Amino acid sequence: MRKDCLSGNQKRSALGAGRILFASLASLSFSSGYQDSRLKKFFSRNGTVILGFIFILSLIVLFAVGLSQNRKTSENFKYGIVFDAGSSHTTMYIYKWSAEKVNDTGLVYEIEACKVKGPGISTYATKLQELPIYLTQCMGRAKELIPKYKHQETPIYLGATAGMRLLSLEDAKLANKILSAVTSLLSSYPFNFRGARIISGSEEGAYGWITINYLLGILKEKQYSKDPSLEKNESQETYGALDLGGASTQITFVPKTVTKNTASKLMKFRLYGKNYSVFTHSYLCYGMDQALLRKLAKDSKNAVLEAYMEPCFHPGYERTVDLHEIYNTTCAWTFKVWLPFNKIRIQGSGNFEKCLQSINELFSISYCRYTSCAFNSVSRPSVHGKFGAFSAYYYVMEFLNLTSDKVSSRDMVNEKMRTFCSTPWEVVNTTFIGVKEKYLSEYCFAGSYILKLLEYYNFTDYWNHIEFMDKINNNAEAGWTLGYMLNLTNIIPAELPPPKPFSRPTYISLMVVFSLVLAAVFILGSVLFHKSWYFWN
Ligand SMILES: Nc1nc2c(ncn2[C@@H]2O[C@H](COP(=O)(O)OP(=O)(O)OP(=O)(O)O)[C@@H](O)[C@H]2O)c(=O)[nH]1
Ligand SMILES: [Ca+2]
């Protein structure tokens, strides 16, 4: 338990200090008081008033010092803005924290997640003039929510992820044009603009890992180890992070053992006085949207008379796609075949087993130069401990009602998926009214894809180790943005800040005790002074 009251030792030392103070004051009044008769007269008349005045002044000083050290946290808030420019869309997050408690864990929280209307910024290469309108609504929210006098000191960052990574592989100049346009646009706002850049897949994975462990209070657990409310986190291992975006997916965790194979994939951090070696890998083209595009491109070769049966779509569902749209992407071009038509009609058959088989072909496992690989010849240290799965992992599992603790095995998920995929589209469409058609029609594919992805990561027998998470502890959404800001604003120190000498209640108790001792000293001093004056006169 944290000590909030005075301990026996503290009480004894407080009283001891009082006695010494009293003795020195008394001796001072005896030794110097009688040497000057004018002074004696003055003290005899005004002594009590002077002592009372000194006493009150001391109290005021003591309390003023005390209050200045224990100022209410609501007085000085700081803010930070981060734009997550993802492949499918952009979201602006506003974080708020107390300047005084900045080093405590879990105290930065999200006050706004503003979804920018429209697709990801990588699609704006040919319509740069539309960017001001694109960002204006969320920037307006930032101006509204952050007090005006804080605007200038509020940092604003924009991090672009896999959509821009892909564009920069296809045409680096175009990607730079977008970033320049965004830079000049965000610089024109009254905030402290600190850069727009494409973050690497490793950064995206690592910052996501920092975010969830920070919000769960795991990074700084040691400092709280005597607090019963945080006991569950004592000596707890960090959570691994699983992020599934639209164009890339990341896996990040602290491996139990580091081998030669994994060493090159480790990122090292020193946070709150502890060292972490974090394995992280980002698979470009393995995000949800790009995986579906690649699957459609791969299976389009089966088209007969401009149509083919798609097992990952519900029976009765139909979608017509432009072949140009699916072949002309960096992720899918390897599946390009010549077909005598421009469009294909995709008809759902809702066959879960066939869907899984077909998804299998998206993962290359034929070659592994390490002892064990997840897929695409990327080394895979054994997964262990708990994992937090967010972004599309959460959206999909939440929709399928598979996020509960009771869903403890992969078999249960398989069963649910089998039934869901075979449900006719007409039934699905009329049951889930109001759900965006794009999302609704793709949940069968998405759920099956997640199952396969987690199988390749080797979670088959560890399904119950995964927690699907969105907002953590009601503080902030899981994702890379908070970790990015914590790092760039140095909110997480490398070393643990030294503990405060006293907690607030201890501090107040000490003030009260010392004030009472002071009062007693002055009252006694004043009585003794008068007695001695009469005695010597
Ligand atoms: N069902 C559902 N899907 C969503 C929702 N929001 C986004 N998605 C989809 O989930 C996938 C992942 O979304 P995000 O995590 O936002 O992806 P992103 O950040 O744009 O992409 P990356 O740049 O790869 O990280 C994409 O296919 C989105 O279209 C939602 O609210 N519900
Ligand atoms: Ca993302």
Helix and strand topology:
Layout (H helix, E strand, L loop, with lengths): L7 H26 L3 H33 L7 E9 L4 E9 L10 E7 L15 H15 L9 E6 L1 H9 L1 H16 L4 E7 L2 H15 L24 E5 L3 E6 L6 H4 L2 E6 L2 E11 L3 H12 L7 E4 L7 E5 H5 L15 E6 L3 H9 L26 E5 H8 L10 H13 L2 H7 L5 H20 L9 E3 L2 E2 L3 E2 L2 H9 L15 H33 L1
Parallel strand pairs: 1-4, 4-5, 6-13, 10-12, 13-14
Antiparallel strand pairs: 1-2, 2-3, 6-7, 7-9, 8-9, 11-12, 15-16
Guanosine-5'-triphosphate binds next to helix 4, helix 8 and helix 11.
CATH class of the domain at 75-198: Alpha Beta
- Overall structural class, as computed from helix and strand content, comes to alpha/beta
Number of strands: 16
Q: What is the name of the CATH topology of the domain at 75-198?
A: Nucleotidyltransferase, domain 5
Strands in their spatial order, largest beta sheet? 8-9-7-6-13-14
Share of helical residues: 40-55%
Offer a concise description of the structure.
This protein has 537 residues and is an alpha/beta fold.
Quickly list its features.
single chain; 537 residues; alpha/beta; Nucleotidyltransferase, domain 5; six-stranded mixed beta sheet; five-stranded mixed beta sheet; 16 strands; elongated; disordered N terminus; binds guanosine-5'-triphosphate; binds calcium ion; magnesium; ribonucleoside triphosphate phosphatase activity; ATP binding; glycoprotein
Structure description:
The protein has helices at 8-33, 37-69, 131-145, 162-170, 172-187, 201-215, 260-263, 288-299, 323-327, 352-360, 392-399, 410-422, 425-431, 437-456, 480-488, 504-536, and strands spanning 77-85, 90-98, 109-115, 155-160, 192-198, 240-244, 248-253, 266-271, 274-284, 307-310, 318-322, 343-348, 387-391, 466-468, 471-472, 476-477. The chain has 537 residues and is α/β, with parallel strands linked by helices. Among the domains are: 11-69 and 503-536; 75-198, ATPase, nucleotide binding domain (Nucleotidyltransferase, domain 5, 2-Layer Sandwich). The strands form 4 sheets. Strands 8-9-7-6-13-14 form a 6-stranded mixed beta sheet. A 5-stranded mixed beta sheet has the order 3-2-1-4-5, with helices on both faces. Residues 1-34 and 222-235 have low confidence and may be disordered. Bound molecules: guanosine-5'-triphosphate (GTP) and calcium ion (CA). Guanosine-5'-triphosphate binds at residues 86-89, 120, 161-163, 245-248, 287-289, 391-392, 395, 399, 439.
